[in-house]
Design goal:
about 290 residues; alpha/beta; Rossmann fold; seven-stranded parallel β-sheet; 7 strands; about 50% helix; disordered N terminus
Length: about 290
């Protein structure tokens, strides 16, 4: 690792090979942080590094091989980083994907893998960093949640369940760590143009005899439309950097088109009204 960077604020980002992770790595690097951009497969680092070169911030980024579902990776990488830099100032838990499909047709293993990546992997990385942040009485942990952690949709039950779990975990952890000067934050994006929509959606293509075939096709069309028309994900990356720079950040930062409106309506409207709207939207038109 680059010894000359020891005095700079250090941010560790999981899932940095694409999507929010890649853009957040660049945004932190542009803001003067030294970025440890971790990813499962270092062969995918070139996209990030090429963009960093074009923006003149390649010296601020180092790519690290880390699979959040492998404890051995975490146990070897995090202590080495701490030993070299003294601490991790900001942890951005971004690694994750969205498993799509109806519950009856999704193998249980798919559910387990969704939670291993989106939830248990996040906890494992966080636990590795906590002792050092507590000891130094400072640090910010930013967990990438989702509007799906506030409002669940059919066909995305594993993803929504993992994000609901993340919301509860983050609330509890924030209360545990505030007395030690460590802030836990949830960033809750709506729909953005990232590669999350191209991962884990195989089960939307259900077999011809599936009782959910028509609904699967309707949902897949909705997902594809979202992927093409959603907001620019760079605004989420900018928000994450802004949160990291705040002395006393809030717990939650919802961001995206209609996100605040949707969560507010869920609190105010009778649930049966919301059911009707959602079910009508996914029902095939005749």
């Amino acid at each position: 690792m680059k010894v000359s960077e020891q005095h700079r604020s250090v941010v560790f980002i999981t899932g940095a090979s694409g999507g929010f992770g890649l853009l957040t790595s660049l945004a932190f690097a542009e803001s003067g942080y030294f970025v440890l951009a971790s990813m499962r497969d270092l062969a995918k680092k070139e996209t990030l590094l090429e963009k960093a070169r074009k923006q003149g911030v390649e010296a601020n980024i180092e790519c690290v091989c880390l699979d959040v579902t492998k404890q051995d990776d975490i146990d070897s990488e995090i202590p080495d980083i701490i030993e070299h830099f003294g601490n991790i100032d900001v942890l951005v838990n971004n690694a994750g994907y969205a498993a799509g499909g109806f519950t009856e047709e999704l193998p249980l293993e798919e559910w387990r893998q969704q939670f291993e990546t989106n939830f248990f992997g996040l906890i494992a990385v966080t636990k590795a960093v906590l002792p050092y942040m507590r000891k130094h009485q400072r640090g910010t942990i930013i967990n990438l949640s989702s509007i799906s952690g506030k409002m669940a949709l059919p066909g995305l039950a594993p993803y929504s369940a993992s994000k609901y779990a993340l919301e509860g975990f983050s609330e509890a952890l924030r209360l545990e760590m505030l007395p030690y000067g460590v802030h836990v934050v949830l960033v809750e994006p709506g729909s953005y143009q990232t590669d999350i929509w191209s991962k884990g959606m195989d089960h939307f293509n259900s077999y011809p005899e599936s009782p959910y075939r028509d609904k699967n096709e309707s949902l897949l069309k909705i997902v594809n439309h979202i992927a093409k028309t959603a907001d620019n994900p760079e605004e989420v990356a900018r928000l994450i950097v802004k949160v990291a720079q705040e002395e006393n950040p809030d717990l939650r930062y919802p961001i995206g088109k209609n996100v605040r409106t949707m969560t507010r309506l869920k609190k105010l409207l009778p649930w049966r009204w919301i059911e009707r709207v959602i079910l009508k939207k996914i029902s095939p038109r005749k």
